[in-house]
Design brief:
mainly beta, five-stranded mixed beta sheet, binds ligand MTE, 33% strand
Length: 389
């Protein structure tokens, strides 16, 4: 490869051959150095990886309860499927079932539709804030977003095949294109969560068909759980008598059973699979490093807690010495984040502004990060430095 420009040209040709959107891919590559992606007609996304398209939402976009799809983070472990045809798409349901079957998109769409507003967060969101640094995509604060997902209940889809009593876990396979000899992105969830009335085979996001980046034509939606549970480009559902064994169940997406010292290794036997998200808040404004005029400033942000509800968000404007309650936004749903705001009478000086959420199970964001070797579930109190003049 002679130059970055040649590389971009080659990637563009490859993307064309693969039926991808070359202008976006090229923009992603070009933007990698600046950290900002320009997609015509859409606002900037932060490119954390252009290889498989890992796009982060800048926090200032966390100002609406539902995240517009063009601003919704994207997390791909592999190449997106190059051929996606609604007419040819099929979903196979098999394994520990009475009648294995295959549904086409019309048959799937004929099942009753259910909607769930869900905050989807990548387990690795915030990984870049761990010290010592851990390997993996170095997400900042924005690998999270909230959308209204709609489609048939996963339970109704499973019922078409009839789950046997031996069925204990449900495995999802997507249509990702696997680069070389790496393991496929296959994971499973326990049957109880699969049969929950809010778990979906989603075909829509915010009222429109899923886009390619978010799993067109259908994805699993496992509300309140780490994003990895919600398999995109779903093509196979298999009921298993035990948890799926594979790279993305172990060693991937596991958390130490006991607290570990930063930098310490953990034996695989001392870990468990990640499931629900934990309590977290993020400050969406003012931005870190902002210069503001003394007077009334609105500190605003968002807070979520997986399968629990947010009951309180507190804000400190003096580096964590004193805390005051923020006002929670009106819009709420069980698996969705709450927007919040706090009216700050700012006086001149350099200030550290923090936010801290509490959930309905009594969990409070910790002051210091809970370090773990893969950097999952970062949820320390958020903070920004603000200069007031
Ligand atoms: N499904 C497939 N088939 N392939 C993937 O790489 N990534 C998972 C999940 N589903 C992934 C997938 C991860 S890690 C996350 S966080 C979410 O999709 C992200 O969903 P989004 O890209 O729609 O935001």
């Amino acid at each position: 490869m002679n130059s970055r420009r040649d590389f971009l040209k080659q990637m563009s040709k490859a993307a064309l051959a693969a039926g991808a959107v070359p202008s976006v891919l090229v923009s992603a590559l070009e933007a990698q150095q600046s950290g900002a992606l320009q997609i015509p007609g859409e606002e900037d996304m932060l490119v954390r990886s252009a290889r498989f398209f890992d796009l982060e939402t800048p926090v200032e976009y966390f100002s609406t309860w539902l995240t517009p799809v063009p601003h919704f983070f994207v997390r791909n472990h592999m190449h997106e499927p190059s051929e996606l045809s609604a007419a040819d798409w099929r979903l196979a349901i098999g394994g520990e079932v009475e009648k294995p079957c295959t549904l086409n998109l019309s048959e799937l769409s004929a099942l009753p539709t259910h909607s769930v507003v869900n905050t989807l967060e990548c387990a690795g969101n915030g990984r870049s804030f761990h010290h010592p640094q851990v390997p993996g995509i170095q997400w900042g604060k924005g690998a999270v977003g909230t959308a209204r997902f709609s489609g048939p209940r996963l339970a109704d889809v499973l019922q078409r095949a009839g789950v046997k009593s031996s069925g204990k876990h449900v495995m999802f396979r997507g249509l990702d294109e696997i680069p070389g000899k790496v393991p496929a992105f296959i994971r499973s969830i326990p049957i109880e969560k699969a049969l929950d009335s809010d778990s979906l085979v989603a075909t829509h996001m915010n009222g429109a068909l899923l886009t390619r980046h978010h799993g067109f034509p259908a994805r699993a939606l496992v509300p309140g759980w780490i994003g990895a549970a919600s398999c995109k480009w779903l093509t196979e559902i298999k009921v298993l008598d035990a948890e799926f064994v594979g790279n993305f169940m172990s060693p991937g997406y596991r958390f130490p059973n006991q607290p570990v010292n930063p930098g310490e290794a953990v034996k695989p036997d001392d870990t468990h699979p990640l499931t629900a998200l934990n309590v977290k808040s993020v400050i969406a404004g003012p931005l870190d490093g902002a210069h503001v005029k003394a007077g009334r400033i609105t500190v605003r942000g968002t807070a979520w807690a997986g399968e629990a509800d947010i009951v309180k968000v507190e804000v400190s404007t003096d580096g964590g010495a004193d805390w005051s309650p923020a006002t929670l936004g009106r819009e709420q749903a069980h698996y969705a984040w709450r927007l919040w705001n706090y009216d700050w009478k700012a006086t001149s000086g350099d200030c550290t502004v923090l936010s801290r959420a509490t959930d309905s199970q009594g969990h409070v964001q910790p002051a210091t990060p809970v370090w773990n070797p893969s950097g999952y579930l970062y949820n320390a109190t958020d903070q920004v430095k603000v200069h007031v003049s």
